[in-house]
Amino acid sequence: LLTILYINIQVFERERLNGHYGATAFVVGNSFSAVPYLIIISLVPGAIVYYLPGLHKGYQHFFYFVLLLFACMMLVESLMMIVASLVPNYLLGIITGSGIQGMMILGGGFFQLPNDIPKIFWKYPLYYIVFHKYAYQGMFKNEFEGLKFDNNQDGEQILRDTWQLELGYSKWVDLAILFGMVVVYRLVFLGIIKATEKLKPVVKAFMAVPPKPTTQIIENLEAVAYLPEVKV
Asked: Where do the ABC-2 type transporter transmembrane domain residues begin and end (predicted)?
């Protein structure tokens, strides 16, 4: 994915210099052109993963599951586009993108429950700004809401006591937050491209080394040839 993004950005920079289109057209076109492929990537593996373990029956639950996968795929692509626009080196971009994703996963509330996450940085603000939190909540709500168990427990009680989720809003709000993050990430990417266009000439002018002054000496050979000899 990151390789394709680097190629797309390089093609865009060349075509922008030729005056074919601007940054806004590139971001909008890139976003819409990726939608069919991301839908296929979300739908086919999602159907395999969803029905094999016997998750919540019903097409509405499966439709929500696929939409959530699609939103997460869009978010990951948007995040990598931001990394590719900021980090010019491919290998450094892989390291940077993997590091950001790792920090998001650690603070998303899966490996540690929300009440056990360290308050400084990991929960405030990381837990509330990473998209993994809302993806996990949407997945768990989609699976456990409406279920009844033999030990007089229901799905909402497990979500509240075991997974420590926020039940003040529905799973569709979690999905809407994810799609809102997609828009924000794309706007950030657009802003970085536009800022880079304006800052590149300034940086080049600032980094340019002024030429050293040269001294040119012109010799009058005819005058030298007719100079009188001086005897010592």
From this structure: 4-144
Verdict on whether the full-model pTM lies above 0.70: yes
Rg (CA), the chain: 30
CA 126 – CA 10 distance, rounded (Å) = 32
**What is the rounded distance in angstroms from the CA atom of residue 184 to the CA atom of residue 177?**
10
Question: Could you report the per-residue pLDDT of 210-232, keeping only the tens digit for each?
Answer: 656 665 555 555 555 554 555 54
Cα–Cα distance for residue pair 185/191, rounded to 1 Å: 10
Domain boundaries, the chain: 1-226
pLDDT in tens, 141-178: 999 998 888 888 899 999 999 999 999 999 999 999 99
List the one residue out of 184, 176, 39, 164 whose CA is nearest residue 108.
Answer: 164
